[in-house]
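SAMPLE LOG
Freezer: B-3
Tube label: C17
Construct: single chain, 181 aa
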Amino acid sequence: MNAALEAPIWVLNGMLVLLYVAVDQWVFLVLAGLCAFILQRAPGEQRPRTIGALGLALAAGLLAPTPVPTFLLTIAGAAILMPHIEHYNRPAIQWQGVGAMGLYALIGLGVGLWRSLRLGEALASDPLMTQGSNYLNVIIGIALYIFPLGFLAWSAKSIWAHPPAPGSPDQIIRAVRTRGK
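STRUCTURE (predicted):
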């Protein structure tokens, strides 16, 4: 066949490969979009550390084992939603979400490293270390599920558990800045 006739077939095959990869990695693609939104909304003083935390989250979204990308997506959604609910300290509540994404990404990358190096199996091969290996695997399994749920619970507490201050947020901010004068 002529190369000019084969070119559209190769382009179509390349597009299909990209489509299949995108469908397979849809959680990562949505996570990347949410990270871009979070970074765009981050205050200037938080931006350098936000870039680092979101970079870790994207790396974990690609490399970490199964529950990590989904929970990172959940944490990112909460980090976007929380400042819309909070009325008094939006930068702090957003930073709480960014920090949680960075910490959970480190947990996910650590678990991925633990599994890829097969450290649990190496420890379990030694009869003296078998019980310690089982204990570490239990702690790792608990951390994978408890951290995101704890973050969501802590976020709900920090938004709804404190009583609202009297007056509007603008009145309170003015009163604090002017010291009541």
